[in-house]
Amino acid sequence: MLYKGDRFFPRHSRLVPSGFSRQLLHVSGELQGLKVEILVCHLPSSRNTGATRRRAFNAMLRFADSILLTDPKANLIIMGDMNRTPDQPPIGEAFPHGVRRAPCGTLHNPLYPAWRQGRWSYLYKGRRQLLDHFYLSDGMMQRLAGCGIFVRDYMLAPQGAPDAGSPYRTYSEGLYRGGVSDHLPVYVTLETGIL
Q1: Which residues of the chain have pLDDT under 70?
Q2: Could you tell me if 40 and 55 are in contact, meaning their C-beta atoms sit under 8 angstroms apart?
């Protein structure tokens, strides 16, 4: 997790078991005076079994629920590469129309409307997909000022390349290509100055 040290002050961090080789990272801290809980995820890809993906996703939801059960007004941000589009299971089941309503609290995917409009963060065999998500608690949604997928020409494979127009990978087939990433970054802008 990268952050600006003059804006975010971590107070506590720990790894949370996911039932998969990549654990979840939980960081508590202050974002410009606002107490926040952040959960960073990199969930299993499609190369893994559906059961493995569901197990890791459910571990993420259980941990989020435990935070919201303790404090229903918690400012919770979940972010990461979920390796599934908003409509694919288990995400589409848990977040119909980009929202998950549970007894402990509601989580929102602010990028859901962008996905419905055809925006994407990953390109696989010509198929545009939004695999990178944010889930925000009600308190954080009230502070949402904007969100989107960040893209600039230098982040895309150049014309003439076999994968022109897709995110420009750093490595491909074992060779260094000098690109930024195989995913485009997603972002949320939050209003915290009112505190």
Answers
A1: 193-195
A2: no
pTM above 0.70, yes or no: yes
Report the alpha-carbon angle 190-82-134, nearest 5: 10
| AA identity, residue 81 | D
- Judge contact between 41 and 107, C-beta under 8 A: no
| Secondary structure (DSSP) of 2-57 | ---TTTEEEEEEEEE--SSSSPEEEEEEEETTEEEEEEEEE---TTS-HHHHHHHH
Planar angle of CA 19, 20, 22, nearest 5 degrees: 125
DSSP characters over 103-137: TTEEEE-TTHHHHHTT--SEEETTEEE--EEEEEE
pLDDT of residue 192: 72
Q: Which residues fall within 8 angstroms of residue 34, CB to CB, at 6 or more apart?
A: 75, 143, 192, 195
Q: According to the model, what pLDDT value does residue 49 have?
A: 87
Task: Write the pLDDT tens digit of every residue in 7-47.
Answer: 999 999 999 999 999 999 999 999 999 999 999 999 999 88
Q: Identify the pLDDT of residue 142.
A: 94
Quick one: tokens of 173? 């087939």
